[in-house]
Amino acid sequence: MALLVLKFGGTSVGDVERIKNAASKVAAEVKLGHKVAVVVSAMAGVTDQLINYCRSVTPHPNPREHDAVVSTGENITAGLMALALQQRGLNARSWQGWQVPLRTDSTHNKARIIDINAASLLHHINQGEVAVMAGFQGVTDDNSVTTLGRGGSDTSAVALAAALKADRCDIYTDVDGVYTTDPRIVSNASKLDRVSYPEMLMMASLGAKVLQTRSVEMALRYHVPVQVLSTFGNAIGSELPGTLVTDEDENMEQKSVTGVAYSRNEDKVTLTGIPDTPGKAAAIFSTLARTGIGVDMIVQTASHDGKCTDITFTVAKLDLDRARQTLESERAKIGFADILTDKNMVKLSLVGIGMRSHPGVASLMFETLAAKNINIQAIETSEISIGVLIDESYTELALRALHTAYGLDAE
Amino acid sequence: MALLVLKFGGTSVGDVERIKNAASKVAAEVKLGHKVAVVVSAMAGVTDQLINYCRSVTPHPNPREHDAVVSTGENITAGLMALALQQRGLNARSWQGWQVPLRTDSTHNKARIIDINAASLLHHINQGEVAVMAGFQGVTDDNSVTTLGRGGSDTSAVALAAALKADRCDIYTDVDGVYTTDPRIVSNASKLDRVSYPEMLMMASLGAKVLQTRSVEMALRYHVPVQVLSTFGNAIGSELPGTLVTDEDENMEQKSVTGVAYSRNEDKVTLTGIPDTPGKAAAIFSTLARTGIGVDMIVQTASHDGKCTDITFTVAKLDLDRARQTLESERAKIGFADILTDKNMVKLSLVGIGMRSHPGVASLMFETLAAKNINIQAIETSEISIGVLIDESYTELALRALHTAYGLDAE
Asked: Which member of A20, A83, A93 has the closest CB to residue B54?
């Protein structure tokens, strides 16, 4: 008998029929003898409607009141899920964030979880109840309701699993697992049975939209095994029907590359004609850092005459305009000739803990892209990933070529 | 400078534009120098939608979960109202029932208020904030959310006014006050400037749907002056723009009758051929009382031969079938010939504290109805009311005739 946390996202609880379907998944786990806590998102579309209400009252809603309004969506689903479970003959009870309580800091709209006092909730579970917690929300020390930011219900679920010392956290979603790459682009992408936390973190932050990054960070920190599976497909009780995100094991290192992620979220900035004197790079990046703009890939190119250099880097799409303004205002101090920007970029990343024991991973990547005449504009590496910046129009071509080159195609 | 509680019902906050309009009423009171707490209902239609969600999951929703779901409607409005007030430059904060806290018993769906600890809310008001409390809801000692039953937001508002020792509780609704009778039936019904608590209680429980009965009971108990006024009409700050429900004063007794109420909520039951022996009436009404059926008007008619009697009484429409079944099952014991029922009845009631000092009120009523050939089937009196049961088809005719006879027609 295990203690499980089951999380259902917005499309999984999109209407009353889907809530009933999700309840049948919960009931199946209970029937297998497991103790179960459920975490639910708002019904698909409800959160957007509530956000629109706020914005139609005022263009910049006060974050506290915004959270008070927007968090109601999850409370509705939690109550309905408890009712659906009761309708199936189970004991069940809904828990709003403040009822648990799930304590957060007071950064409304994107609060961070401080702790979950799950004693009372666990007591009810041990009495034979299914606990249904509203995701995405928490409560501050002064009893204000907070929300955790988009996709925060994943984080709620993993945090609850950690607090309960649950055996597994199952994330029910509209895909049946984590794939080697985006199956909409590469039709023979294959589902991964297991993936390590650091790999999943790379894949999540690089654009694979299966799990929110923060939830994976939390799973890693507390060693919570997380299973991603489909509400509409996978059979309950079968061995690993989805993808298990877990601690590394030896088998994982057999392949050099686990998956290929991509992100269209970064724009390229190039500063040209920078005098080739010490401290210039520091001046550029400390200027950006002061205004809260994070920089990702950085490439410095020596000039032909040795007197000046170009520096290329990427910033998040959202920050591009602000980055340009900030640099323009410091142009005289930094000293550069021109700012060039390019929005039509994509970053492709090979991810795999096997890279540590397989040399030659990068060279195969470069050869594969070169064979397709794809120009690499920047490179970034970590212990378990290699990322390249290329022209966005080559995305599909490059993804498919790399997927094949690293032996990831499904048989 | 006064401390006011302003309550806005469902149609007054029916959409975002109406919430903004209600906020303008609040802002006008603040501008006059008043301290203000606001109590809001759910946006019109939202509560019904939430109830329907619950019922489509299960035909008999668990009351606790039902309340958890249904109470979210008021939380949405409270947050949006706070935002609308902030948009007008006011300091404002929403308060959910548990945040106040407004403590209730655990009778979910129709909980009764135990107490309101308004210290924290009052502290915020005294710091210059408008407090916006979600109506209709409270919290039990074990932190479950409760609702107060239909129209419960009126009760929330009066209870908050009592807890704050507010100078007045203004109930904003879609009518501009309390009328001498239903203006949809009697076109020259006139608006009352003042009405006493006991009169309002009679009018409310007899079918004038302006204020929920429980809210008037609470206003009476704590001597909270309650003003009923329209969200869409009355000017702010004018002297008594709506109807003030308050303690009696001498002026109120000048007229014998304050208003004429009607209720279609009662059905007539007649038991015929009851042996005329002691204890029969007791047997009938204790049987009904044991099954929780309340009886209103009672008339006993002696038979011609002196051997048996008929007994006529009224019960709430909802209870009619149950009353019949209960009596049938005890027919042998009670001993009666037949049960006759009539659903086409209406109860008309004259209400007025002036009755106590004006004799002859009842006789004018009977003469007026007789002159229109309207048969009276039962009579009920209290210190400040006289009610008669008549055939429903005479409702309009009788209401107009009585309204004229007692000098209530607007000039």
From this structure: A83
Distance separating alpha carbons of residues B154 and A370, to the nearest angstrom = 74
A83:B98 CB<8 A: no
Phi–psi pair at B237, nearest 5 degrees:
85, -10
| Beta carbons of B207 and B265 less than 8 angstroms apart | yes
The residue whose two tokens read 């299914």 is A130
Do the Cβ atoms of B78 and A68 come within 8 Å? Answer: yes
Instruction: Give B66→chain A minimum CA distance, Å.
Output: 7
Q: Dmax of chain A from CA atoms?
A: 80
Note whether A57 contacts B145, CB cutoff 8 Å. Answer: no
Q: What is the pLDDT of residue A232?
A: 81
- Percentage of chain A beyond pLDDT 70 is 98
Cα distance from N-terminal residue to C-terminal residue, chain A: 36
pTM of the model: 0.87
Query: Tokens 């407004």 appear where?
Result: B102
Looking up tokens 């969506």 gives A73
pLDDT in tens, B59-94: 999 999 999 999 999 999 999 999 999 999 999 999
Domains of chain A: 3-247 (3.40.1160.10), 250-411 (3.30.2130.10)
The candidate with the shortest Cα–Cα distance to A217, out of A197, A237, A194, is A197
pLDDT of residue A238: 52
State the ipTM, two decimals: 0.85
Which whole number is the average pLDDT over A177-192? 91
Cα separation, A95 vs A83, whole angstroms? 13
What's the rounded mean pLDDT across residues B11-39?
A: 96
Cα dihedral sign for B180, B183, B184, B187?
positive
Residue A226's pLDDT is what? 96
Q: What is the identity of the amino acid at B95?
A: W
- What is the spatial order of strands in the sheet that B129-134 belongs to? B91-95, B129-134, B35-40, B3-8, B168-173, B226-230, B243-246, B194-196
pLDDT at residue A204 in the model = 81
The answer to whether B87 contacts A143, with C-beta atoms less than 8 Å apart, is: no
Please report the DSSP string for A79-113 in residue order. Answer: HHHHHHHHHTT-EEEEE-GGGTTEEE-S-TTS--E
Q: How far is B395 from chain A (nearest CA, A)?
A: 43
| pLDDT value, residue B356 | 86
Could you count the other beta carbons within 10 Å of the beta carbon of residue A283? 15
Do B348 and B399 meet the contact criterion of CB atoms below 8 Å apart?
yes
Q: Which of B26, B69, B146 to mutate to test the interface with A (most CBs of A within 10 A)?
A: B69
CB distance A75–B78 less than 8 Å?
no
Cβ neighbours around A294 below 10 Å, total:
11
Q: What is the nearest CA distance from B28 to chain A, expressed in angstroms?
A: 18
Taking contacts as CB-CB distances below 8 angstroms, the residues of chain A near B82 are 62, 65, 68
Query: What's B409's DSSP letter?
Result: S
